[in-house]
Design goal:
Elements: H1 3-13, E1 30-36, H2 43-62, E2 66-68, E3 71-73, E4 75-81, H3 86-98, E5 104-106, H4 111-124, E6 128-130, E7 146-148, H5 158-164, E8 173-179, H6 182-194, E9 201-208, H7 216-225, E10 229-233, H8 236-248, E11 255-258, H9 265-271, E12 279-282, H10 298-308, H11 317-336, H12 341-349, E13 352-355, E14 358-361, E15 374-379, E16 382-387
Parallel strand pairs: 1-4, 1-5, 5-6, 6-7, 8-9, 8-10, 10-11
Antiparallel strand pairs: 2-3, 12-15, 13-14, 15-16
Helix pairs in contact: 1-3, 1-4, 2-11, 3-4, 7-8, 8-9, 11-12
């Protein structure tokens, strides 16, 4: 089913009226809408997304709200649980627009839901700023109302390859495992193309069903080729499953790196010491060095997160990029001097600002191709930035010890 058909079905499901919904500057409160997978397979990542949104919400409302032509407008964010289902997310996004009169939209978690929701935003001509849908296929539809603050999918594991090329002895072979969703395939395909430019070969490329948690066969295939690097392109549950299977089957490699999962506190909580030595490509870490034009510095952001969510450690990149989406929307509204969705859309298209998360600037498709990613490694149960060197707080521990030598 195409996203355009989904847009029509979602509109019908809630008796939609093609309207902007509450865009009068006379309103005192700005309503934002966001469907999130608060139950289902993407609950962990969606909860991190919501934390990032709410961290900004507290901050902006403590200052009286978003300033539009000298008038402060408090903000509310209306959430619905899309049960980690992309089709349901689209239905709820339409409901947010037509029933809840959301003036602007924040994205769901995941590329699949972001793709369906982007169709709804486009149909209703309501700007959606999203932080957790990295598949470039979302942005290749000609849409004008969806903007993504995060680096695109093809960049997720390229930094790991760049880092690996600096190590000695240099790894030369790669086993690439991937879920079969659009985001994961884009990540994997990028590695298939990029690795040879760094003198490395992909000797295994094996796909599995998105959301699978029994990945023993895939790990066995990776073990059979005895690759120096084992990469996985997928999400948290799949990364945990692969790491567990690797230990069970004694799959040893010099580098284990996963596109999504290791950066979250849940990865370490699920695996304990077995999470050590794993790498990931990260949109952001507390070690990045950006000078923000407004909002908080990197260190102040980390402190604010710990104060609001005590006991959870440092914020991971899902939290940070979600806050960044709110900041992009805020600055666009301020620059537009209006709550008119078309004027805010135009302000988003012209936006170029640096915040604690990095540069936020969109290409003609609406995706942020300008912000670099970094590489993390878990060492003794702690996330450390290990690449590039100018932001690293630790050196990579390489090669990864064999399972029976840890």
């Amino acid at each position: 089913m195409t996203v355009r058909k989904l847009a029509l079905l979602a509109a019908a499901a809630v008796a939609a009226v093609a309207c902007g919904g509450g865009t009068s500057t006379g309103q005192t409160t700005i309503t934002l809408g966001a469907p999130l997978g608060l139950t289902g397979s993407l609950t962990k990542e969606s909860t991190l997304t919501q934390q990032g949104y709410n961290l900004w919400l507290d901050w902006i409302n403590a200052r009286g709200g978003i300033v539009v032509n000298g008038v402060k407008h408090p903000v509310v964010i209306k959430y619905y649980d899309d049960t980690s289902n992309a089709n349901q997310s689209a239905v709820l996004m339409q409901k947010l627009i037509t029933e809840d009169k959301a003036q602007f939209l924040l994205g769901p978690y995941g590329s699949a839901a972001t793709a369906t929701d982007a169709a709804i935003a486009e149909q209703n001509q309501i700007p959606m700023v999203e932080a957790n849908g990295a598949a470039q296929s979302i942005f290749n539809q000609g849409y004008k109302y969806t903007f993504g603050v995060l680096s695109p999918a093809n960049k997720y594991l390229e930094g790991v390859i760049d880092m690996a090329a600096t190590l000695s002895p240099k790894p030369t072979t790669i086993a690439m495992l991937s879920a079969d969703d659009n985001f994961s395939i884009e990540v994997a395909d990028a590695i298939n193309s990029y690795a040879p430019t760094k003198g490395m070969r992909v000797v295994l490329y094996k796909k599995y069903k998105n959301g699978a948690t029994n990945l023993s066969a895939e790990v066995q295939a990776a073990k059979a080729v005895n690759a120096d690097i084992v990469l996985n392109s997928g999400h948290l549950q799949e990364a945990i499953a692969i790491n567990k299977a690797a230990k069970e089957q004694k799959l040893n490699a010099k580098i284990f790196a996963y596109s999504v999962g290791p950066s979250t506190p849940d990865f370490i909580a699920a695996l304990g010491n077995d999470a050590n030595y794993v790498y990931d490509g990260s949109q952001w870490t507390p070690q990045v060095k950006y000078t923000p034009a407004f909002y908080l510095t990197v260190s102040d952001y980390v402190a604010a997160y710990k104060a609001k969510y005590p006991g959870l450690g440092d914020p991971d990149y899902h939290v940070a990029e979600s806050t960044a989406a709110c900041l992009a929307l805020q600055r666009a509204i301020e620059n537009a001097g209006s709550l008119d969705p078309k004027k805010v859309r135009d302000a988003l298209a012209a936006l170029d600002v640096t915040v604690f998360f990095g540069q936020i600037k969109f290409d003609s498709r609406g995706i942020n191709i300008y912000k670099p990613m970094v590489v993390e490694q878990i060492q003794a149960g702690v996330h450390h930035t290990v690449f590039p060197a100018d932001v690293a707080d630790a050196q990579a521990k390489y090669p990864t010890p064999a399972w029976d030598q840890r």
